[in-house]
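> call design_seq(struct)
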């Protein structure tokens, strides 16, 4: 491996870990809040948390996508088999698509259903989608399918990350952690 690979810059690292922490909280909140027979008070808290944190993710993910397009990923260690580099590229692309699709479909589902998003409403931000039962249903299906796909890809992503960090110890882990890049890369 190349011991001088500096990995991702600080901005990409910080965005990765902000989104990772938020998404890893959003998934259990979403799964628990839709359960039948859940305590109403807990359900309300989880819905408010899920809708509002999820809405904040829309501009954060947009920024991340723009950053990624304008700042290509550093090359992976040349010692990695080609199929693993392809798998990394494919799964990262899938994660980007899903991290865009999830908050957008969630937003559309809630707005088309005529429901509040407390934080955005308090700021006076209007609903950007009109009420529509059929649109709400489509968005709900997209949201649930995307959530399932995200969980599956994340299982692979976390497995690969642990494998690199603990078993191979090939420097891939250090490409994204810690959040501040060594040196002075942005
Ligand atoms: C504890 C949780 C997580 C760990 C340990 C982790 C670990 C990593 C590692 C080691 C890399 C670097 C891979 C490389 O150098 O090519 C990476 C990149 C990446 N991770 Fe994660 N990750 C986590 C959570 C997430 C989540 C929740 C998402 C998305 C929803 C995500 C999306 C990505 C993406 C898209 C990249 C590629 C970055 C780019 O090329 O711009 N990660 N992650
Ligand atoms: C990265 C962002 C998000 C993730 C990972 C995520 C994840 C999930 C998961 C795992 C579920 C349960 C699956 C199901 O049975 O439908 C769910 C449901 C739900 N989510 Fe999200 N979500 C995100 C963003 C949002 C946003 C931004 C909103 C609204 C503003 C939202 C609104 C909802 C609603 C209303 C449900 C209940 C299911 C339904 O009524 O269709 N989500 N979400």
């Amino acid at each position: 491996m190349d011991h001088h690979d500096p990995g991702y810059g600080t901005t990409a690292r910080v965005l990765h870990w902000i989104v990772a922490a938020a998404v890893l909280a959003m998934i259990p909140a979403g799964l628990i809040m839709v359960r039948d027979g859940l305590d109403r008070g807990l359900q309300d808290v989880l819905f408010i948390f899920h809708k509002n944190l999820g809405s904040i993710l829309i501009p954060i993910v947009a920024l991340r996508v723009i950053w990624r397009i304008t700042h290509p990923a550093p090359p992976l260690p040349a010692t990695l088999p080609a199929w693993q580099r392809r798998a990394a590229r494919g799964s990262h692309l899938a994660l980007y698509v899903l991290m865009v699709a999830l908050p957008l479909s969630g937003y559309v589902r809630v707005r088309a259903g005529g429901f509040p998003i407390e934080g955005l409403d308090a700021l006076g931000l209007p609903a950007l989608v009109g009420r529509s039962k059929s649109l709400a249903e489509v968005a709900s299906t997209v949201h649930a399918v995307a959530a399932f796909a995200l969980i599956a890809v994340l299982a692979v992503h976390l497995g690969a990350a642990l494998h690199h960090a603990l078993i191979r110890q090939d420097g891939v882990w250090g490409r994204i952690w810690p959040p501040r890049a060594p040196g002075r890369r942005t």
